[in-house]
Amino acid sequence: MRAKDLAVPFPTIALDAPVLEAARLLAGHNLPGLIVVDAAGRPVAVLPGTQVLRLVIPGYCREDPTLARMIDEPSADVFLRGAEGRSVAELLPREQPGPPVVEPQATVLEVAAVMAQKRSPLVAVAARGAAVTGGITLDALLDRMLGTA
Amino acid sequence: MRAKDLAVPFPTIALDAPVLEAARLLAGHNLPGLIVVDAAGRPVAVLPGTQVLRLVIPGYCREDPTLARMIDEPSADVFLRGAEGRSVAELLPREQPGPPVVEPQATVLEVAAVMAQKRSPLVAVAARGAAVTGGITLDALLDRMLGTA
To answer: Which portions of chain B are predicted below pLDDT 70?
Structure first.
């Protein structure tokens, strides 16, 4: 059992795609994150789902969430206005210590170790220097490790 | 629209529950994490899904995942042996800066701000000092903010 056997087709998103497209992909497919790719389809990062919220929430609310209680306008409006004109590239954390990527030949335990180390419930599968061929979620990995799938 | 309207019944797990029970809950329900509760059902922490992997992976593999490629025994055996006799309490990060919890009256934007601040795709809903009444996932929140639900 290798990474290529566990991987499933997984939505990717371009660095210059709009934030709103990322949010819609996440919401529509119940995904733990998105694989961000460059123009050649190579993995650049895994975007955690919670990261899409950071841009669209006013800074003072991020620091003290109870202040958000004071805002009585519909949250959808706040979200859409915050996302407008922003790209996925702006959502990525500044310090990128290498994205969670495994090669197709990686063992199940290796995939688990990468997830644990990067604290990412999603890893991309790609050969070195090549385009993404799929993704592995924590859920799929646990199913395999626990023998429930 | 308040947190209590967004919250759905969500599995909780006790601090002294076995790690294997946590892993099975996560895998069986495709959850982004688990709400950890004390004996009175009050929220203590939210356990990110990836955290269950940390205990069961040998330390040298966590630091250098490529070393995991050398282990040729079935990964299920490694997992089960690593989880044996361990409790959920051992999985929680040492530094707990307060769990992602909102009160039932919290606004949607407040829930979003807590998720963003704690980088947690799951928040527990509980009145101050009371038991957990439900959970809100990032997925459900995005559906609401984007108007797709």
So the answer is: 71-76, 96, 148-149
Query: How many domains is chain A partitioned into structurally?
Result: 1
CATH of the domain at B136: 3.10.580.10
How many whole angstroms separate alpha carbon B138 and alpha carbon B61? 30
Residues in chain A where the model's pLDDT stays below 70? 71-76, 96, 148-149
When CB atoms are compared, the residue of B71, B112, B138 closest to A109 is B71
The pTM of this model reads 0.88
Residue B39: domain span = 3-146
Residues of B in contact with A79 (CB under 8 A): 112, 145-146
**Strand A12-14 to A33-37 pairing:** parallel
Instruction: Single out the residue of B46, B65, B45, B47 nearest to residue B57, CA to CA.
Output: B65
CB contact under 8 A, B112 and A66: no
